[in-house]
Amino acid sequence: METSTITTTTNPIDSKVQKKSKFKFFFRKLSKSWTGMLGFGIIIILIVLSLFGQWIAPFDPMDAPLRDRLLPPLTDGHILGTDQLGRDILSRLIAGTKVSMIIGLATALLAGVVGTIIGVTAGYFRGWVDVVLMRIVDVQLSFPFILLVLVVSAVLGAGLTNIIISLAVGGWVIFARVIRSEVLAIREKEFITAAIATGVPKLEILVRHILPNIFTPIIILVSLQMGTYIIAEASVSFLGFGVQPPTPAWGNMLNEGKDYIFGSWWLITFPGLAIVLTTLGVNLFGDWLRDTLDPELKGE
Amino acid sequence: MTEVLLEIKDLGIQFKTGEGVVQPIRGVNFSLKKGETLGVVGESGSGKSVTSLAIMGLLPEKKSKIVSGSIHFNNQDVTHLKDRQFRKLRGNEISMIFQEPMTSLNPVFTIGEQLSEPLKQHKKMAKKDRKEAIINILKQVGIPRAEQIINEYPHQLSGGMRQRVMISLALLCDPKLLICDEPTTALDVTIQAQILELMKQIKSEKDMSLLFITHDLGVVAEMCDRVVVMYAGEIVESAEINELFDNPLHPYTKGLIDSLPTNNTRKSRLFSIKGQVPRPDEIGKGCAFANRCPYAFDKCIASAPPTFSTGEHLSKCWLQEPERQVKIQ
Amino acid sequence: MTLLEVKNLKKYYEISQGLFKPKVVVKAVDNVSFSIKKGETFALVGESGCGKSTTGKTLLRLTGTTSGEILYKGKDLLALSAEKMRSLRAEMQMVFQDPYASLNPKMTIKQILMEPLRVHNKFQPEERLEKILKILEIVGLSKEHLDRHPNEFSGGQRQRIGIARAVILNPDFIVADEPVSALDVSVQSQVINLMLELQKEFGLTYLFISHDLSVVEHMTDRVAVMYLGKIVELVDTEELFANPKHPYTQALISAVPASHPKEVKERIVLKGDVPNPANPPSGCTFHTRCPFAMDICKSVVPALTEIESGHITSCHLYTNNKEEK
User: Per the database record, which ranges form the ABC transporter domain (chain B) (predicted)?
Assistant: First the structure.
């Protein structure tokens, strides 16, 4: 037998591994999990409602014909009834979707960006920077989240932007903590040692090797945290600090409806359901995303 | 003793993956006689570990399926045995030693607690007798201070000691068949030598059959009476140990033996098999080794060879077709 | 000509035992000295925990050093500034054991191979791709692999990529840390051949770290055997396998599995385990397992001495009473 050459024959299949489009891959994976599908479906509905709500809603959410006040569901075209001022509850819910989605998304992005920067700084540079930042995180985590949000929004005042800022002030710590531990795990990986051995400068290692590898956990965390922020916004609005009436938001609808809880159940039931469904949808989708993208579970 | 203890006939196993169905085991045949040590040699992806899991009834239930063939253990068909029935065999009549001694022991229980588990399951014994049996078996596998070790936790032991504990765990119920899945791969060379020595000694003392799964031909040469060589989910060659090393009939076996550094002149190019092990979804209708085989011809690519036998020496290669009978060298 | 010289290298770790207990010092590398000649393959062998990998990493300053000198082409690496060291890395590269962990999963092969050229500013940007294609061809991969990610390759192919990354800068010195032990048997020999070929073509000097003695015997020129952080024997490869002096080396060589069932090996089976490096035995650290241990071994640390020309070992058998062997 003559000695063989070292050149490998390319696997015939290698050339067959065609680059499937990422979308196709996404939907094929999604179609295998009914919880993921459900979550994704709910999110799609919410997005459609918040984008096109004003054309979908049967009534003007601000229009208050007092003679139609407290109509029960399914009367005079009011599918979900009307509130104490005669406003159509369905239309107000749809209008509130936009508020909830904007707040959930904007807060998650703001808290995500701030938390990631702080988490990466602490995790990558270690030393006293890490100690100081993480003690701040510890202190803040010992405060009840909602209390902190209330205090900050009391200082800043009401309004959409302010509620987003106060939620983000309360929420960045989660990101900082999770991202820091991700960075700590990644920086111990051998490909980081390999990059150092290659002679890649420190900052470039961070940008080219560490950041791309923590992108997945950031996405997962953003989607999971959105649900938390939507609930938190509702709670804050319910307590009267958040979005101010007459702008419809699910939280202040609950607040206004609570006085009529015994006579007119529909005033608080439907906004409550909307919050539950939205959070459920976002969380189901976030869970699915984590299960699908998380490398630990992926390598089955 | 020529009585057959384990017989596997035409075994085929399918796995469901995200991409579809793959069949990592495609028709495996072999038998293991009582008191014999049979080596199963193969690289990663050859299906050697999946085969051993099937014998143990440990295939993941939802993801895999035995689609053809049968496994007979001690004249009993265990192919589609229920898990409850399998539990009576496992740890009792069939035992297994795994590659990674750290992960195979539960970190929160003491050595003594873990060793008493199979005895509780399979044997009725007083607590005192149990302790005695455990200390006894630990001494047999060469663990010093056995009386103290039983109160210690796995992390307090070294890798070699843990593997000894694993062996004692497997031996507790005097199994008829001991499956060793790469038992020394994770160990250092000097510790590997100790463990192999120990296993030889145990084997000579107990009337037990050994199924020795490994990728290391050197370990096979030392331990086994007979060898089956697996490649891409099937057995490509099976022979008595000396016969296999002196006269390998399948080009894959020959390539493996020739590529051992000790069989090459120092500093020269090593003999090497080109290419790499195919994935289960890459195997076409021909011989699975054809794309790496230096002897491959038209027939090899066109159709898969059946098993040809030269006495006790079996091989799956078109070169061994009776009218051809090429001797490779 | 000496390319790299290591003098009295020490790497100690401190392990905290809790608030009120004193710290335990682990001597991972304990006073190691050796030199590597240009163009040779120098092997560090030993069992896990003997400090061979740590030694390899300290040479490239991938981990800190407690004390000692590392002279590369006469320059003391430990005295270099971080930036000077970084640019010197173009000449000193590393191949890792685990080809799955040592390649960034998010990068394509092109990005992985482009990185060394970019950070060291080698070649004009337009020539770089050409260089990458050339190196890919040398390691047995091809143009169509450029835009793939590491997870689309087998272990052997990944190790080829790892090797390509190390040699693309035309380095002089490569630390190869168990480069074939994670690979399938039939692929191991391919990678060994590739390393031998590259050495011939580029005049590389290797520090080859391995526990696999048959591979070490095949491809290295000189060997240092390590036990618990110390070198116990250092000699030409052929001499080491023909005439091992230290009882540990003898046991190590005899423990290599046979290559044929009929091969009769006189096996020295060592008793016991490798001692805990945090609490090494007194005197000669090997005395607890040594079949020839004498009284002196328990108390006096044997010095490394040249017992024959070019054959260095640290064992009392050769310093005092030779007849006991």
Answer: 6-257
